[in-house]
Design brief:
Blueprint (H helix, E strand, L loop, with lengths): L3 H21 L23 E3 L5 E5 L6 E2 L13 E3 L4 E2 L15 E3 L6 E2 L13 E3 L4 E5 L12 E3 L4 E5 L12 E3 L4 E3 L14 E3 L6 E2 L13 E3 L4 E2 L1
Length: about 240
């Protein structure tokens, strides 16, 4: 429980975090910025939704002409479960401390110009169900502990500049329905125990530098509807 003065401090911290987001992403140029930075409750700011106690739980500012970078202070919104900022013009890196937002269930940052690595801290978000980062300029390797995200249904990292191999831990994601790693610079082989992804409906690994053979275990994926492996060095 938080007493009244403590809750007021939390709400003020969240307001400051939202103002920092507005300034860092050039909010004056957004398509919609109704009530932002005003004295009105933040629940009346465009794209912001709050819990019953007034704390921010959802940010939905997709398709809204955001530019600039996502500030690290966004992690002060520690009750956030939905972060929708897709289809904008964001650049810079994903905040390295994004793993502090432990209630996050949905991250949609696709179709931007975000660069740099996928932070290792993202693997702390064990409630995450959807991680959409496709169509950016992300580089580096897929986090080795990606398999910690055991509640993921959708992992979409396609059309970036990711390299290295597909982590073995990815096969721990038994609830995964959609795995899209297409059009990167991934190498190595398809994990031999890929059949642990028993709920997989779509597997897109096309246009990489993946080599080796197609594992026989892939034939155990009886729910698979799409299997895209073209544009690799498979033998």
């Amino acid at each position: 429980k938080v007493n009244q003065s403590g809750m007021a401090e939390v709400l003020e911290t969240e307001r400051e975090a939202l103002i920092a987001l507005y300034e860092a992403t050039y909010g004056d140029n957004w398509t919609r910025n109704d009530n932002w930075c005003s004295d009105k409750p933040v629940s009346e700011w465009y794209g912001i939704y709050c819990n019953d106690n007034g704390t921010v739980c959802r940010i939905e500012v997709q398709n809204n002409n955001l530019t600039g970078e996502i500030p690290e202070s966004i992690t002060n919104l520690n009750k956030l479960y939905r972060l929708w900022m897709q289809n904008n013009n964001l650049s810079g890196n994903i905040p390295s401390n994004i793993g502090d937002l432990i209630d996050l269930e949905e991250i949609f940052l696709n179709n931007n110009s975000i660069e740099g690595p996928i932070p290792e801290s993202i693997t702390n978000l064990t409630k995450l169900r959807q991680l959409w980062l496709f169509e950016n300029d992300l580089s580096g390797t897929i986090p080795e502990n990606i398999g910690n995200l055991v509640n993921l249904n959708e992992l979409l990292l396609g059309r970036n500049k990711l390299n290295g191999s597909i982590p073995e831990s990815i096969t721990n994601l038994g609830l995964l329905h959609y795995l899209d790693l297409q059009a990167n610079n991934l190498s190595g082989e398809i994990p031999v125990n890929i059949d642990k992804l028993i709920n997989l409906k779509s597997l897109c690994l096309n246009y990489n530098n993946i080599s080796g053979t197609i594992p026989n275990s892939i034939t155990n994926l009886s729910k698979l509807r799409q299997l895209w492996l073209h544009g690799n060095n498979l033998s």
